[in-house]
Amino acid sequence: MSNDATTPVPDSPFRPEPGDRDLAPQFVLPLVVRIERAAPPPRTDALETAARAVLVMLGDERSTGDGAWARAMRDWQDARIRKVVRRARGAEWRRAEALPGITVTGKTAEVRVFPPVPLDGWPKDLARLQVSGTDLDDPEPPADADRSAPVLWMNPDLDMSAGKAMAQAGHGAQLAWWELDDAARTAWREAGYPLAVRTPGPDHWRTLTTSGLPVVRDAGYTEIAPGSCTVVADHPALR
Question: What is the DSSP string of the chain?
Fold first, then answer.
């Protein structure tokens, strides 16, 4: 599922309205979630693992400076910030693992994130993977979030597929990362990027969206209306 969102800076790469970033070559950050038929991961675990995968890619030494992925990461971040989540199992997953990227593991979920690629330049072993079919459930309601760690709050009024929600959670994690100073980023990275993804009640959601925390607004390419608030990124350092 692919997505876009909003930050308060001019010509944000996440805002739904067209801007100068739309004139730049467009790239996408591919994420692949492992969904074996007999043992799919719980939905919340998949969302949290996808968000951490985005942070791992952003914080990897290959993504900055003269790193092997740095040019692709700069090109991606200079245009729209797009993420697409596809699913794989069995031999598909093994082929995906053979491509340059990083596999991030949650409690049971596995998500592999790859350096950005042009919208029309996907590696064939990723391009053939399905976008649909990432509907996942939680066998039990997730425990209350630890508010001393970052929480990505999902809009309780939106019905999103797991793939769409995974991409949105990744947006939220990225917005929080951009807002943090170097010391806070280093502390988060050294701790292993702890975070939770939760859905608040309606009253809490309304409070969150007016709190000044980073808010993701979808560009409306798939599933939901343009400009919809999807995630609030609640990092302790930003409160």
Answer: -EE----SSTT-TT-SS--GGGGSPPEEEEEEEE-BTTBPPPHHHHHHHHHHHHHHHHHSGGGSTT-TTHHHHHHHHHS---EEEEEE-HHHHHHHHTSSSEEEE-SS-EEEE---EETT---HHHHTSBSS------SSPPPPP-TTS-EEEEPTT----HHHHHHHHHHHHHHHHHHS-HHHHHHHHHTT---EEE---HHHHHHHHTTTS-EEE---SSSS-TT-EEEEEE-GGG-
Q: What DSSP letter does each residue of 54-72 carry, written as one string?
A: HHHHHHSGGGSTT-TTHHH
Predicted confidence (pLDDT) per residue in 143-198, tens digit? 999 989 999 999 999 999 999 999 999 999 999 999 999 999 999 999 999 999 99
* Structure confidence by residue, pLDDT tens digits, 64-106: 999 999 999 999 988 778 999 999 999 999 999 999 999 999 9
Q: Which of 107, 164, 168 is nearest to 138 (CA)?
A: 107
Of residues 178, 124, 166, 158, the one with CA closest to residue 227: 158
